[in-house]
Design goal:
This protein is mostly helical. It has one domain (8-178). The protein has helices spanning 34-46, 61-64, 67-70, 72-122, 126-142, 145-169, and strands at residues 8-11, 54-60, 172-178. Helix 4 packs antiparallel against helix 6. The longest helix is centred in the middle third of the chain and has 51 residues, at 72-122. 16% of the residues are buried.
Amino acid sequence: MATNPTAIQIGVEKLPQLFHTLDPFPFRERDLDRSAEEFIVDWARELPRNQPLKIVVHLPAAEAETAVARELEAAMKNFFAYRSNVIGRDIKELFRVGRRALLIGLTVLGVCLALGNLVSDFIAPPALERFVSEGLVILGWVANWRPAEIFLYDWWPLKRRRDLYRRLAAATVELRPVAPPGVDLSAESPG
């Protein structure tokens, strides 16, 4: 049987292996196991961004008929939607910190520029006056380094990760029963 090269393939003996064992919530609301999450996310990163994702879970036929199996797609969708929302909140927090840092940075820049203009009145040697005033200008711009970094660069990886989790939350989940050795699942059972 050929597998879809754009689908994430996972093999398990029992479905609870995919979920965090110490999570007290019912199956549909449980957290994925950290290694299962990393495996799925790493594989999804490698797939084309313009195609919908599909997660194929290979498991024993008996396991595919359980109540847990019927809730697997909803459980995965809930988990990835939750993680997407958490990352979305992280982005909002980063921008909040960025706005505060920008306010501080612009204030420091303004003070440094004002002090740089005043330096000429109090420092007589031109070389020393230039050294101090340019140093203050540099300090003012360095104070804006962090907000510039936040608004220009830091949010992009978070956005990509949030978008990936959104794609995973929208992924279809397919269960593929695997027969025990010597059993052919494609053959119909006699009567």
